[in-house]
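Can't paste images in this forum, so I'm doing it all in text. The chain is below; anyone willing to post the predicted structure tokens underneath?
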Amino acid sequence: MEGIIIEAREFKDFIYGEFARIGKAISSPKRIELLDLLTQGPKTVEALAADTKMSIANTSKHLQSLLESKLVNYTKDKNYVIYRLASEQVLMFVLALRGTAEERISDVKLVREGHILRQNSLSPISFKELTEKLNRNAVTLLDVRPFEEYKHDHLPHALSVPISELEHHLDLLPKDKEIVAYCRGPYCVYATEAVEFLKSRGYQATLLDAGINEWKQIQH
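Text version of the structure:
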């Protein structure tokens, strides 16, 4: 519609219709989950299908809807199709959507506290506390996300030990120093599982109830 002068009502209908395209694209919980996963970095269709427990066909269908709404884009690498968020603005949109749900829907917080914090039996550490302890070399910071996500971006001084490999790499972790585990953010259970496992093996372990995106937000 470039360069076309239209009436006021037609203008409004067009603009809000385009806004509604975004709303329609995120009307599926699975598509929101896909966007949330992509905030951690580019991923293949196969990796996204595995993370969301969907078939590759269904994953591709949802990604096509996000692509049509210009929320994601993709590149090809040999036989793989790699998706990523279309822009930094889309990342902020996903985080804002999550934050709005946290603020307006009380059950979100209650369910998260039950599942991630184990009814608040796990006392998470804040970024401020973490920074102070890192400055004193008093903790080992552990990133338990998949290595590809760590490679894309990670917290300063973090050691990569994916949750799936943690049991086999305990020799990398000191028992005389507190271990702080983090994963994709406040709705990712990997860090919770890591802390519980490490405690069962005699380590002093703590949860960072945040991830790389939350860290970036406080840097601005």
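The chain has a mean pLDDT of 94. Residues 8-25 form the longest helix (18 residues).
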